[in-house]
Amino acid sequence: MAEPAIVQPLEPVPPAMTELRLAARAACPDGLIDLSRSEPLPIPVADACAERVQEEFMRARLYSPPVGLLLAREAVARYASAATGLDIGADRVAITAGAMQGISISLRALVKPGAEVLVPVPYFHAHPKQVAMLGASPRFVDTRPRQGVLTPDAVERELTSRTGALLLCNPANPAGVVLGREQLEAILAVLPPDVAVIGDEVYAEYLYDGRFTSVLEVAEREGGVREVVAVNTASKTAGMPGWRVGSAVGTPGLAARLAQAAATMNGAPSTPGQLAYATWLDSPPKLDRMAPYRPRARETIEALEGAGLSVRPPQGSYYVWATADTEIGSPERVLDAARATGALVWPGALFGDAQSVRISLSVPRRDLREGVTKLTDSWREVRLRDIPVSRPRR
To answer: In whole angstroms, what is the distance from residue 145 CA to residue 148 CA?
Structure first.
């Protein structure tokens, strides 16, 4: 398979996914099978979350401190300590308005204007834009030769005197790769001590097998030689995107700087969201949250490989990342396929690779089967130059 060029995301700016969804829905009046969605399947939410918000609703009249409510910071600290085995206090926690704000304030606090931030490709679609928006430059680290696995050699090749941070999505969205302890230790070992690490760990709860290792654990073994922050969000941990609340847990002394950045960018996070999330974190449901995704992943991979696409089975997240030997992942091709089939995926070009697409498993299983079948038929026809993918729907 020919190695495609890395898509530069800043000039020109590709259409946003919202615009593609609207165009696809307009073209499919009979209904659209949306395999591009990012929300997880529902997770149980205790009545206590709503009760806590109701009991303390008048708190919502007041601004939360930029660093977050103490009760929320304490809940995150307890949850993170249990997950990592570290002794994390509330003084190391900043509550954020979701993971997107967590990444932005981490970049603002840790990276100087004009510096470079290492961004593995494929990347979460917003990461390069967040880096550029704050006056730094994304420097891309190509992981595609190893199917999305970031290696120390690949990182070391891209280090320069301007490198300020590594922005690491682990578990990776979109590729589904999960880096383990030894891999993380090897990557951090090649980074100079003054290079910070920002861990986008929002899918840490979505593992098909094994235990997740946070970059915070690896930093602890380094003896605190570098600044590290791990970002999470209720959108994934609690399955509640609408709460718009998350957390950034950093090495000692970092939370105050994160709060200063938040105060100048977005201000305080949602007070009701913090109350609900703190309550959820203190009594999370006991469940195998990957149970509904395993059969979906198995069936989807089988269909994609049968159509000639290359798929690395995901180790984490609830997506399947599929790569073809032709450009199926440009916004134009994805929209053409949606018009033809009634099924929409997320174009890989928005993640840095126009020969790939991201397929969400967090949809009804019947819709997933139908959508993947229609899309693989279309991609097969394009690859074999049989029938144009833009033919009218029957």
So the answer is: 7
Q: What is the pLDDT of residues 362-371, one digit of tens each?
A: 999 999 999 9
Instruction: Please state, as a whole number, how many other Cβ atoms lie within 10 Å of the Cβ of residue 161.
Output: 7
Backbone angles phi, psi at 117, to 5 degrees: -120, 125
Are residues 336 and 264 in contact, defined by beta-carbon separation less than 8 angstroms?
A: no
Answer yes or no: are the C-beta atoms of 386 and 376 closer than 8 Å. Answer: no
CA distance 128 to 122: 11
Helix 215-222 / helix 70-84 crossing angle, nearest 10 deg: 80
- The pLDDT confidence band at residue 54, using thresholds 50, 70 and 90, is confident
Domains of the chain (ranges, CATH numbers): 17-41+292-383 (3.90.1150.10), 47-282 (3.40.640.10)
The CA–CA distances, whole Å, from 153 to 121, 172, 258 equal 14, 18, 31
Helix/strand/coil for 47: helix
Burial of 197 by CB count in 10 Å (0-12 exposed, 13-18 middle, 19+ buried)? buried
Task: Compute the distance between CA of residue 64 and CA of residue 16 in angstroms, rounded to an integer.
Answer: 32
Question: Residue 391 pLDDT > 50, yes or no?
Answer: no
- Rounded Cα distance between 208 and 317, Å, is 8
Q: What are phi and psi of 364, to 5 degrees?
A: -55, 140
Q: What is the pLDDT of residues 2-44, one digit of tens each?
A: 455 555 544 444 568 999 999 999 999 889 999 999 999 998 8
Q: How far apart are CA 150 and CA 353, in angstroms?
A: 16
105-130 per-position pLDDT tens digit: 999 999 999 999 999 999 999 999 99
User: How many residues make up the chain in this entry?
Assistant: 394
